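Re-running the complex after MR caught last week's input typo. The corrected sequence lines follow. Everything else is unchanged.
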Amino acid sequence: MEQEASKPPLPDAFLAFLEANGLDPSIYTSFDSTPRYVRLKPNCEAYLEEFEAEMNCKLQRVDWLPGFYSLHSNTQIANSKAYLEGKIYGIDASSGAAVMALNVSTGDHVLDLCAAPGAKLCMVLDLLGDSGSVTGVDVARHRLAACRTMLQKYNLGDRCRLFVADGATFSLIPAGFCSDNKSCETVLAEKAEVFKEWTSKRTWKERKRARKSGNLQLVSGSQPPDLIYYGRHSGVVGLTKDDLYKNAYDRIIMSHGYDKVLVDAECTHDGSVKHIQKFEHWGWKTLERRVLDADRTDNLFALQSRINS
Ligand SMILES: C[S@@+](CC[C@H](N)C(=O)[O-])C[C@H]1O[C@@H](n2cnc3c(N)ncnc32)[C@H](O)[C@@H]1O
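Corrected-run output:
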């Protein structure tokens, strides 16, 4: 009876999952043990004091992650001025570590194969500043649309393109490279219809296509990539559709491919402590259905293997 009372308030199926994977259940139940993190946009240090006063909290600089600060796990940042004005991001330290491991250098062309909702993509763009480019790909249209909103909020879209596509089959090279011997200028002069500056206003053709795809939120590997956003300096403006969607050969990929590739495929939530804690409100049955279902886990494993190969 006593043993029952001290058992962490997690469902048996999840406890069995943790045990099978050698994970300590207490990391999911000690609510205060995991701090939350924020990242500051470059050159926004002036906002720190104001943020601390508004939130009545003290930020601790994370020495090993530039621009990151930790704060108490209960601090809600969503209504703070700095967050609403796009000066501060909510992003955990492990995401920051993954981006730092990419070792992004000035001028890099980065491919983010599982980009939505876009915390790492934004960090990469901040690191690149006015150089290079980022191509974000995600199979979920609605999630990538949220990523587009995030780019706009943080004013980071200038060197970015977003494609709804299956990362396992995506094979477009960074924009702005002509894959034959002609110079870009010659090619552009020869072609009539080129991409103009991106606008959120859809043409009737695009609206029709969106209506057609309606509820189809996830694309399959056989569908061509769908460009849902491109910035002014992403290399897309001025290209023809043929140029953008041209299949690249090995030789071209070797010389004009991406410098860095980030693959952040969906995980089984075993590492996502905060997310698991939310199921206390959503219901443990939902956790069993959404997270622990064996078929789903097998499918995820297959996806992760496919996308990493
Ligand atoms: C863990 S989230 C990515 C988080 C994101 N990198 C960030 O920093 O905000 C995983 C994403 O992978 C996407 N995804 C899953 N399978 C995919 C595939 N085959 N191709 C592209 N994206 C995929 C999901 O739609 C989901 O948005």
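None of the earlier attempt is carried over here. Residues 175 and 244 are 6 Å apart (CA to CA). Residues 1-5, 178-183 have pLDDT under 50 and may be disordered.
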